[in-house]
């Protein structure tokens, strides 16, 4: 996997005092492993076995084969 460190900034406003838990993971194509750092857009698709992420190349190929 290529790429360097990337940062995502999430601006949130909490109106009540409470604990907020968040998590993050790399977003990459299930087929080829490429992601945003490679210049691709990523789309989530719900399949019978769960949610799968596809890059713009593989999402269009997957959508043409139901």
Structural description of this entry:
With 66 residues, the chain is of the alpha+beta class. It has 1 helix and 2 strands, in the order ββα. The chain has a two-stranded antiparallel ribbon. The longest helix is centred in the C-terminal third of the chain and has 8 residues, at 56-63.
Give a quick summary of the entry.
This protein has 66 residues and is an alpha+beta fold. It is built from 1 helix and 2 strands.
List the helices and strands and how they pair.
Blueprint: E1 42-47, E2 50-55, H1 56-63
Structure keywords:
alpha+beta, two-stranded antiparallel ribbon, 1 helix
- SSE order in H/E notation? EEH
**What about the largest sheet?**
2 strands, antiparallel
End-to-end separation in angstroms reads 29 Å
- How many individual helices? 1
Uncertain residue segments = none
State mean pLDDT (0 to 100 scale).
Answer: 80
Give the strand line-up of the largest sheet: 1-2
Q: Using the CA coordinates, give the radius of gyration.
A: 16 Å
Number of strands: 2
């Amino acid at each position: 996997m290529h790429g360097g460190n990337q940062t995502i900034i999430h601006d949130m406003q909490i109106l009540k005092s409470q604990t907020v838990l968040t998590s993050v993971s790399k977003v990459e194509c299930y087929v080829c492993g490429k992601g945003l750092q490679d210049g691709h857009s990523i789309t989530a698709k719900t399949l019978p076995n769960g949610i799968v992420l596809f890059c713009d190349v593989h999402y269009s190929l997957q959508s043409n084969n139901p």
